[in-house]
User: Fold this.
Amino acid sequence: MKTSFTAIAGLLLLSIGVAAQKFPVDTIYKAGAIDNRVNIVILGDGFTEEELPKFLNESKKFADFFLSYSPYNRYRNYFNIFSISTPSKESGITNPGTAFDAYPDQPVETKETYFGSSFGNYIHRLVTISRYTTLSNLMAMNFPSYDLIVVLVNSPWYGGSGGSFAVHTLHEQANKIGVHEIGHTLTHLNDEYWAGSGYGWEAPNMTSNNNTATIKWKNWLNTSHIGVFRHGDGDASNWFKPTTTNCLMEVLHKEFCNVCREATVERILELVDPVEKFTPDNEEAVVMKENGASFSVELLAPNPNSLMVEWSLGGKPLDAKTQQVDIPFSALYTRITDLTASVFDSTFTSRQDDRKVRRTKTITWKLERKDIPLNFHVVADRDTVCAGESTILTAQGCLGTLNWSTGEHTEVIKVTPALSADYTVDCYERRTDNVHPAAIRIVVNALPTVSASNTGPYFKGAQIELKAKSSDSYDWIGPDNFKSALQNPVIKNADTVNQGTYTVTTKNKAGCMASASTQVFVDPLPVVDNDLHSSVQVFPNPTKGSIFVKVKPAGSSDFILYDVAGREILRKTFIQTTEISLNKLESGIYVYSLSNGKNETSGKLLLE
Amino acid sequence: MLRRSTILLLILCFQLVHCRQARSYVRAQELPNYDKGVANHILFLDFQITQDKEKGAVKAELINAIAGNGKMKDHGQGSIYPDQIKVVHYFSDRRTPVEMFYEHPLLRTAEVFSQDGNLSKSTQTALKGTLSIRFQEDQAREKIELYSVTPDRGAVKIYSLLVKK
Ligand SMILES: [Zn+2]
Assistant:
């Protein structure tokens, strides 16, 4: 009964908890579309209706501070900043006055405010909100797509906190708290002060690797205070940071270090695409007219502008580095030619090794010359394969949508036919409503049948005989650098070094290969001790269940049975004659050794 | 709409003698502020996380759910302190479940900023806290599970929420 009740109570709360309403969302800076900018929303607590202009003014002050902070200042137009005005019943926020470090001149008071902010009970300057549900409702109704939240608290006294969003007062030092917190929430930077056991983890500005050749920030070593700094003793000694007392992530009165700046810029460029728009559209081929055509990319330039544009036509680079190129009709020689614009932000704030590969955006247009016949066809990387292998098929010259017989629609597909097969592809041109078919046959050659065996197990000094099934060529490899191209190679005078796995790879006339392996066992026992061998009988051999052992010399004899892997299976001590039951053993080949005094002999035993 | 269905459920529950099988669920389209006229929605859920005593069993309860319009960017996941709430999203279309990690509301860490510019971390233990999560609506999402993750107890499931169509 209890569970159901909590569920219902929860649902009831859902319906009555929606006291949130629409509030004015004020634009402080709008640089572009919400989905291609980082959107910061500034909220206020402890501002009464009459004080909302003050809140707007404070929001603008924080926005200006943030956008002039390096490296955000270079990417100002990559951010939108908004504020939402939520009036509180009372001005200011609660001060419990209970903390040991409470400011003696600050009045102790309780205030009814929108987010229920308060100075700390135990640590005074720790200012936090308490109405999380109110915050969720406000954001859902007014700005669900936010990226970052900063809460400005209407108090002149120093204080603030971080977590999933930043909270800080209007004290002039407090705006750095917001910037530090955005370092955590936006860029996932770690603190560069040692925050305690449990706070060590891999982050752009923290690592357990102190090898200067491979450390994350290796490209910044020995520039403006960047090095490899151990966090401290104990747990802290396992973690390293890029600088010491020289970064906002460690102390508030410093700016971000170069490593944190790099991570910040990389993060901004992950969220915001520097290519805002391009023309013409590239969903369909661009039909070229006699007087050529213009192509352009609209870029979101940082300041200073570090964007680089490169153009190429038919795979050959063009001289143009501008946002627009004019392609003359005469530059095209085939029915379809690809035109590509590559955009890369070469900002020196990042030195990451793979930045160019990772961050280059390319836009490709297909340029069509109608006066050249269409040559739609399929090519294969390899049109003959062995069973189990793959090949790549590419449909070339299509100006519409592709429909492969495999159900795929991409230009390039990978196929792994089991048997020889025909692959067909239709090119559908929406513009003309024509369907052009193309096809290719992929021949699949069977693999050779292969098997490997040997006549062992063997004793030291015996001859190892390896056997493979008949094929067109053989390539044996095995222990002790064994190599042979024979079908059935032989190793004379076997020793323990010859024990192990032998693999034969056979190749048929079509060039297809297959492999098989066999295990060879070489027992270290001597093959024969003539003195004893002639006076020992082990029978029947092969046996179906039990054996008799007879030894001519008097005195005690030891019989030991091994499996082919050399593991001792059983042992019996007897005088002259005994019967040994093998009923519990699995059928197969075994090896026995028999000793009497100083004499020893051994032999194979087959259990059927 | 929601209020009527809630009351209906309540009446239904009182009428039945055995209603302990009632399970918690949300239906996105019935959430407050859900705008059927737009294509993309973001869902906001608030859970109250409680503990009757220190080291006691952690419990969760859905206390608020609301929808908003639009799309969210993928903000990735930074590392967090070992005490966490793990939220697992299950989908009906063979996608592997997606795990998201949040700061444990009963063990919040707040950064303390001293006026001399020095920083430190303060761990605030509590018996009651709020976990707020936000995610893009996805037609294939069918269940959300909450786990309390602590180094000494590992991951303990504390809530299961069905997401109905
Ligand atoms: Zn740093």
